[in-house]
Write a structure and sequence with these properties.
Elements lengths: L2 E5 L3 H7 L1 H9 L3 E7 L3 H9 L3 E5 L8 H18 L3 E5 L1 H14 L3 E4 L13 H14 L5 E5 L2 H10 L7 E3 L21 E5 L8 H14 L4 E5 L12 H7 L5 E3 L6 H7 L2 E4 L9 H8 L4 E4 L4 H4 L6 E4 L4 H13 L2 H18 L1 H16 L6
Parallel strand pairs: 1-2, 1-4, 2-3, 4-5, 5-6, 6-7, 8-9, 8-11, 9-10, 11-12, 12-13
Length: 378
C-alpha cells in the first residue's frame, strides 16, 4: 500500500479545500497521512471521523522569525523521515518551499499545489524575501520527480520563469473544485437584493472597497442588504482590525457575520456574490461555490478571478481597489434584476462544466498514480 503524506499550513484549510481528495485517495487504496500545525479539537475530530491519521507540525502560516522558520523546516523534516511517504502532496507556499527542499534531497516523488503566489509576490512586498523565495523555487522546480498543480495561467508563467519547469509537469485545475450537490442551484431573491462578500477578513481581499461601495449604494437603495462573512485572521499581516469589524455591526450598512460555517445556506440567502480581491489568488473557492449556487459574481481583473468569471456572462469584472466601479457594478444588478437570474444560471452551467469536484478529484488520482510508479531511486 502506497503512503501519501499531505502537508498543509492549516487544518481548517485542509478540511474546506482538500478533505474530499484525501478521502478519495483513501478509497483508492492509499494510506493517507495529513500534517498541519496545531489546531482546535473540533478540526481534529472531523479529521479523525474520516479515518485519516495526522501529525502536528511546529509551523506558523505567516511568521517571518528566522529561528521559528528553522524550527518549522526541521519539524517537517522530522515528520517526513518518520512517515517515509511514497508520495508527498504539498499545499500552499510554505509547505511547498520547505517540503520541496526536503523532497529534492530525499528523492521523494512530490506534488506541489500552488494556491496562488500569495502576498510575497505583490509588487510592493519585501524584495529580499522574494529573492530568497525565488532561489528556493529554482532548486525545488529542478526536481525531476515533481508535478505542479496551478490554478491560473499567470502563476504558470511566474513559476516557469523561476526554473526549468516543463509544461508536461504542470496541471491547471480549478482549485479544489466544488461539490455540485452540496452547493445546489436555487433561485435568488431579486425583490430585496442582498450582496454577499465571503472571505477571510483581510484588506487584500477588498474589504474596505466593499464597505465603501456598499455605503454609496445604501444612500440610493436603502432596502439593499450588504453582508460580510468570514473569519478574523489575527496571524495575517494584512488582517482587518477586529475593532473595524465590530464597528460595522454598530452601523446600518454592512453586517459582519464572522466565521459562518453553513456556506450553502448563506449563498441561498444572497442575490449577488462580491469578490473585490487584489490578493494574489490562485482561484477563489468562493467563486466556485457561488457559481455552483447559481449566483452571479462581481470580481476584479486579476489572475484567478478572470480565469473563473466570464465578464457579462456569469458576472461582472471591475478594476481592483476601485469602490466607484464596484458600486456601479452592484447598482447594475439592482436596476436590471433579470441579470441576477440570467447570469446566475450561466454561472451554474460553467460550474458543471469546469468546476465539478469529481473532475478535480479524478485529476489528482491520476497524478498520484503517475507518481506512485516513479521509484525513489529512479
Amino acid at each position: 500500500m502506497k503512503k501519501l503524506l499531505i502537508v498543509v499550513n492549516s487544518a481548517k484549510f485542509f478540511i474546506s479545500h482538500r478533505l474530499v481528495l484525501a478521502e478519495n485517495a483513501l478509497s483508492e487504496g492509499y494510506k493517507v497521512q495529513i500534517a498541519f500545525p496545531e489546531t482546535e479539537e473540533e478540526n481534529l475530530s472531523i479529521i479523525r471521523s474520516k479515518n485519516l491519521n495526522y501529525r502536528i507540525l511546529q509551523m506558523t502560516r505567516s511568521g517571518r522569525n528566522i529561528f521559528k522558520e528553522f524550527l518549522s523546516f526541521f519539524s517537517l523534516l522530522s515528520v517526513i523521515l518518520k512517515e517515509k511517504p511514497d508520495i508527498l502532496h504539498l499545499v500552499t507556499i510554505k509547505p511547498v518551499l520547505y517540503g520541496g527542499l526536503i523532497a529534492k534531497f530525499l528523492k521523494i516523488p512530490t506534488i506541489f499545489a500552488i494556491s496562488g503566489m500569495g502576498h510575497l509576490y505583490k509588487k510592493e512586498e519585501n524584495n529580499i524575501l522574494r529573492i530568497a523565495s525565488n532561489f528556493i523555487y529554482k532548486i525545488i522546480l529542478s526536481n525531476k520527480k515533481i508535478r505542479v498543480i496551478i490554478q491560473n495561467k499567470r502563476d504558470k508563467e511566474v513559476l516557469k520563469s523561476l526554473g526549468t519547469l516543463q509544461d508536461s509537469k504542470i496541471t491547471l485545475l480549478p482549485g479544489s473544485g466544488v461539490d455540485l450537490k452540496e452547493f445546489s442551484q436555487s433561485t435568488p431573491d431579486t425583490k430585496v437584493v442582498t450582496f454577499l462578500m465571503p472571505c477571510r477578513m483581510l484588506w487584500d481581499k477588498g474589504v474596505r472597497e466593499f464597505v465603501e461601495a456598499s455605503k454609496e449604494i445604501k444612500k440610493q437603495h436603502p432596502t439593499a442588504n450588504f453582508i460580510l462573512a468570514g473569519p478574523y485572521d489575527p496571524e495575517n499581516p494584512a488582517r482587518v482590525p477586529i475593532e473595524y469589524l465590530d464597528s460595522l455591526n454598530q452601523g446600518s450598512t454592512v453586517k459582519w457575520l464572522g466565521d459562518f460555517t453553513d456556506m450553502p445556506k448563506l449563498y441561498k440567502e444572497a442575490s449577488v456574490v462580491v469578490v473585490p480581491t487584489f490578493y494574489n489568488e490562485g482561484l477563489p473557492k468562493v467563486i466556485l461555490e457561488a457559481s455552483a449556487s447559481a449566483r452571479p459574481i462581481i470580481t476584479t481583473n486579476i489572475p484567478g478571478c478572470v480565469d473563473s468569471v466570464d465578464d457579462k456572462i456569469t458576472g461582472l469584472i471591475v478594476p481592483i481597489k476601485d469602490p466607484s466601479s464596484l458600486s456601479k457594478a452592484m447598482e447594475e444588478f439592482i436596476h436590471q434584476k433579470q441579470k441576477i437570474i440570467e447570469m446566475g444560471k450561466s454561472a451554474r452551467i460553467k460550474a458543471q462544466k469546469e468546476f465539478d469536484i469529481n473532475l478535480v478529484s479524478s485529476a489528482h488520482m491520476s497524478l498520484y498514480n503517475t507518481l506512485s510508479n516513479i521509484s525513489k531511486d529512479g
